[in-house]
Backbone:
């Protein structure tokens, strides 16, 4: 037995912000953003929250799977931008979709969050502890951006993606997860500082800092190796894979990985043109778009891969 994805869903905020919109409020241009990254526009929250995006994505995934919230036994949300320190986003989703039987918690593995949630849920299902799970990757990154730092704020967007998992005879085939904490400062955002009576630090809020080129080099050197490991575990080659659904950080990273694996770029679907980089949400939103557009055929082999903050990475091979 293994674990199969039996439904997907996603939700983007209503407000579209184009590169030209950003160029009106900071020193940037559509030309710079498009040519360096491939991003044309992104969605940013106004009234929406991480939990509200998750709830809509989860309900769409449930509908796609033909299930109800009451049937769900486990909920894991990959996020670094939950609305509260507590309750977790997963607990909010549990209440929002009426999943009263489900255990629910969040996992923070930044841009690899959906892959880590997938692996964790797979382990629970394979151990026979639960029969099904709802997993999500969701972010409202716009609230942790430094909107005076053009080198980071233009890259990111907000949104949520969800998948329903079930024990089945086909599905997930192989995994590779990894981290290099020694390079964590390349992509960082401090939590609130300690304000207890023993500490004299002033309260200050931090925002995302990224050494873009360092993270870029990490991605193009680590991701092909991680994908290579899952293919090796399954005894197949990149040519046997129909789709490489990668974290959407930069179209140049997708092209570089395709080149390293010696496969056509056409096997690397892209949605960062209209979504930007949504960290943990990138992979499940892209998977849902492909599913709803009828691109995924039963029996096709698909590689999922996330990479980023931590630094962390995770890849999975599955049969659709
Ligand atoms: O999701 C987690 C994983 N994240 C990633 O994988 C991101 C990986 N990194 C990247 O995708 C790229 O490094 C970036 C897109 C972040 C940056 O691209 P780059 O080609 O590495 O540009 P750069 O940082 O070297 O900056 C080049 C120039 C600089 O100007 P000078 O010093 O050459 O005069 C920047 O000041 O571009 C300037 N610049 C901008 N110009 C217009 C930086 N941001 C902007 C901007 N608009 N928004």
Residues:
């Amino acid at each position: 037995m293994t674990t199969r994805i039996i439904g997907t869903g996603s939700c983007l905020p209503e407000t579209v912000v184009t590169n030209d919109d950003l160029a009106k409020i900071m020193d940037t241009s559509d030309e710079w953003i498009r040519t360096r990254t491939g991003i044309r526009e992104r969605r940013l929250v106004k009234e929406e929250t991480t939990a509200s995006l998750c709830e809509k994505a989860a309900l769409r995934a449930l509908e796609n799977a033909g299930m109800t919230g009451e049937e769900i036994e486990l909920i894991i949300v990959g996020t670094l931008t939950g609305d509260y320190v507590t309750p977790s986003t997963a607990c909010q989703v549990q209440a929002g979709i009426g999943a009263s039987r489900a255990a629910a918690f969040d996992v923070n593995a930044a841009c690899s969050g959906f892959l880590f949630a997938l692996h964790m849920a797979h382990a629970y299902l394979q151990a026979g502890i639960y029969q099904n799970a709802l997993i999500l990757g969701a972010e409202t990154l716009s609230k942790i951006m430094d909107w005076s730092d053009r080198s980071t704020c233009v890259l990111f967007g907000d949104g949520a993606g969800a998948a329903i998992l079930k024990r089945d005879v086909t599905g997930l085939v192989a995994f590779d997860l990894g981290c290099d904490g020694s390079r964590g400062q390349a992509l960082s955002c401090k939590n609130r500082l300690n304000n207890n009576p023993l500490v004299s630090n002033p309260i200050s809020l931090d925002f995302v800092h990224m050494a873009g080129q360092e993270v870029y080099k990490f991605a193009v050197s680590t991701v092909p190796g991680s994908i290579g490991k899952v293919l090796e575990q399954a005894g197949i080659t990149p040519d046997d894979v129909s789709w490489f659904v990668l974290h959407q950080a930069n179209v140049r990273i997708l092209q570089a990985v395709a080149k390293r694996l010696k496969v056509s770029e056409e096997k690397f679907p892209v949605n960062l043109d209209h979504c930007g980089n949504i960290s943990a949400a990138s992979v499940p939103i892209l998977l849902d778009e492909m599913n709803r557009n009828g691109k995924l055929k039963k029996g096709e082999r698909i590689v999922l891969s996330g990479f980023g903050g931590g630094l962390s990475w995770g890849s999975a091979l599955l049969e659709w």
